[in-house]
User: Which sequence fits this backbone?
């Protein structure tokens, strides 16, 4: 029987601790106790709890970026419907860690970094609306739905959330708001 690696144990322990405490209240001592490892093992992998957060956040963002890159949406979409489902499935699987990073003060830049990934991948065909604002509107909608879903601990099923993300595209209704002569 294969045992979990130390980094996997640390990730699980840290994720659990973030559900109970804010980041500033979590100590390396608490992490190693919850992980069932010694401090030396922790320090073999991470310089401190800040390095742990940096690595965990980078891993999440890298996986998200790969999903977004592999499933680019068409005009005025961030992702294809399949890509949206893949992203939500990934987020659901990592929801506890994401909730900790986003809402416990662990990584104050995580939300901004996620937004940048989405902004880089949205394509907008201009119809009189400045591209920078069109992109921001699409990404803001996408982010607000995801953040609310995560805040609610992913209570709604993925198949219910996915269509909400697709409605944030620049539809004719959105264009009508800016072309009412």
Assistant:
């Amino acid at each position: 029987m294969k045992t979990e690696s130390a980094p996997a144990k640390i990730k699980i322990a840290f994720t659990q601790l973030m559900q109970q405490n804010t980041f500033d209240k979590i100590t390396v001592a608490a992490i190693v106790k919850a992980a069932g490892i010694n401090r030396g093992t922790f320090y073999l992998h991470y310089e401190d709890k800040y390095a742990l957060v940096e690595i965990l956040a980078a891993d999440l963002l890298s996986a998200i970026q790969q999903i977004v890159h592999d499933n680019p949406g068409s005009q005025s979409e961030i992702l294809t419907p399949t890509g949206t489902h893949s992203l939500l499935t990934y987020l659901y699987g990592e929801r506890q860690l994401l909730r900790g990073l986003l809402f416990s003060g662990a990584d104050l830049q995580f939300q901004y970094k996620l937004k940048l990934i989405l902004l880089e991948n949205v394509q907008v065909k201009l119809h009189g609306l400045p591209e920078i604002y069109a992109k921001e509107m699409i990404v803001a909608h996408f982010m607000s739905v995801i953040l609310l879903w995560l805040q609610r601990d992913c209570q709604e099923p993925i198949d219910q959330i996915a269509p909400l993300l697709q409605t944030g595209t620049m539809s004719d209704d959105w264009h009508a708001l800016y072309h009412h002569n």
